[in-house]
Amino acid sequence: MKIVIVGSGYVGLVTGACFSEVGINVTCVDIDKKKIENLNNGIIPIYEPGLEDMINRNVKKQRLTFTTDIKEAIQDCEVVFIAVGTPPDEDGSADLKYVLSVARDCGRNMNDYLLIVTKSTVPVGTSEKVRKAAQEELDKRKVSIDFDVASNPEFLKEGAAIDDFLKPDRIVIGLESTRAEELMKSLYKPFTLNGHPLIFMDITSAEMTKYAANSMLAAKISFMNDIANLCEIVGADINLVRKGIGSDSRIGNKFIYPGIGYGGSCFPKDVQALIRTAGEYNYELRVLKAVEAVNKDQKMVIYNKIMNYFDGDIQGKTIAIWGLSFKPQTDDMREAPSLVIINMLLEAGAKVKAYDPVAMKEARHHFGETISYVEDQYEALIDADCLAILTEWPEFRVPNFKIIKKLLNNAVIFDGRNIYDKAEMNRNGFNYYCIGVQTSSKQKTELV
Predict the structure, then answer these.
(1) Same domain assignment for residues 134 and 54
(2) The whole model's pTM is what?
(3) Does a structural domain hold residue 90?
(4) Is residue 363 a contact partner of residue 390, using CB atoms and an 8 Å limit?
(5) Known catalytic residues?
(6) DSSP state, 437?
(7) 229 in a domain, yes or no?
(8) Is the dihedral of CA 329, 335, 339, 340 positive or negative?
(9) Are residues 278 and 194 in the same domain?
(10) d(Cα 61, Cα 441) in Å, to the nearest integer?
(11) Which residue of 36, 168, 234, 296 has the smallest Cβ count within 10 Å?
């Protein structure tokens, strides 16, 4: 089987690599000539554990190729996956120009039956627009070629995308014809042999499933952050509360960790897009609007704690930052809390020394030379007035606290991810501020 993946970003590369890993011939297409040149030279544009080795392995076996020529790629192809970006417009709606451009390319270049599958996260109704765009190009050519459209949303977690694709919780596919269903069954057969469910539904429901799933997870995060802030005010411990509710099978222990808010390429964009879609039908998603508002406010909590500790004046203070990506195991900084927090620290006159295991290069795109970048987590602490932890990378979990205390000007840590135990930190002589645990009466007034 030969398939084409259009879009060589996060979703496209993971999808292409994993399909090629099970023996399918995959061509990845992108309009970015430099990106394709780099991929052909073994240079991967994103960080994802295991992805580079998988790509290089399948390129060597000639099951995975990269090109900018979509016309050539589509020839003798059975399935085209659209995996291009859908950036949010100012009003929160998804920009579909890249998706529809691929649909038109399919209409211009197909010579036989083709299944066009939207893998990008797209609003309800997009597949019908894809069908229309492809058909318009066929009409211009005055040819009659059968084709189908389908929706196959991705549910990949950055940092665990390879496992998620190879061992999926579920594979959701929206389609309208038996021919398309049989083709998708054949394509995904290697991933369903071990019982991973393949769920077929109508296209509209598949498109909605992606947004509903991400919005539900975002809602859990914002709910827990709201409860964490209340715990801090009344004197409860959110870490104990989390354990207490997480043992309820109806709730579960995933996505109920308090912190400084969600970020990344999915949750913020998808929540906004679903709110926008509801508005187009004159319906207000009040819960999701609150989810979004809580998340926006939560990114202020650590900043407010720092300001409170220094009595509202951090002019000239040096803040050490551990962690820049929106979560561990990725270099993705889209909508990362660190962007908000660091920019506010800079605006207040502070200096920032930052370290992240993989996101340093990406950080330079956002901050330029306005902050200092160091190559070691302890180097960030030298002559710093405090430490703020913004991403829960594994290497931060068991640091040498004696070194931290020796290097910092003040033995104070602001933990935005609750990775340490308050009692242990107090025994080690630190002033320790985290999320959802009351530290002192002074801290009661510092929440957003």
Answers:
(1) yes
(2) 0.87
(3) yes
(4) no
(5) 266
(6) B
(7) no
(8) negative
(9) no
(10) 63
(11) 234
Name the residue with tokens 């597949």: 127
* Residues 327, 420 share a domain: yes
Say whether both 282 and 140 belong to one domain: no
Q: Residue 297: count other Cβ atoms within 10 Å of its Cβ.
A: 17
Q: Are residues 70 and 171 in the same domain?
A: yes
For the chain, what's the residue count? 448
Q: Which helix (H) or strand (E) holds 100?
A: helix 97-109
pLDDT in tens, 239-298: 999 999 999 999 999 999 999 999 988 899 899 989 999 999 999 999 999 999 999 999
* Chain centroid offset of residue 443 CA: 32
> 10 Å Cβ neighbour count for 294?
20
* 241 shares a domain with 124: no
Same domain for 112 and 16, yes or no, is yes
Q: Residue 4, SS3? A: strand
Question: How far, in Å, CA of 333 to CA of 322, rounded?
Answer: 14
Q: How confident is the model at residue 443 (pLDDT cuts 50, 70, 90)?
A: very low
Q: Where are the beta strands (DSSP E) in 260-325?
A: 318-322
Domain boundary among 201, 221, 245: 201
* Residue 122 neighbours by CB under 8 Å, 6+ apart: 86, 94, 96, 99, 151, 207
Task: Evaluate whether residue 136 is within a structural domain.
Answer: yes
Query: Looking up tokens 């819960």, which residue turns up?
Result: 287
CATH number of the domain that residue 140 is part of? 3.40.50.720
Task: Specify the 3-state DSSP secondary structure of 10.
Answer: helix
Residue 445 reports pLDDT greater than 60: no
147: domain range? 2-201
Give me the mean pLDDT over the 384-392 stretch: 98
Element containing residue 186 per DSSP (H, E):
helix 178-192
Rounded Cα distance between 77 and 113, Å, is: 9
> Which class for 47: exposed (0-12), middle (13-18), buried (19 or more C-beta within 10 A)?
buried
Beta-bridged to residue 338, according to DSSP, are: none
**What residues pair up with 351 in beta bridges, in sequence order?**
318
Note whether 364 and 276 are within 8 A (CB): no
Beta-strand pair 2-6/25-29 = parallel
Which strand (E) or helix (H) includes residue 148? strand 147-151
What total number of domains does the chain contain? 2
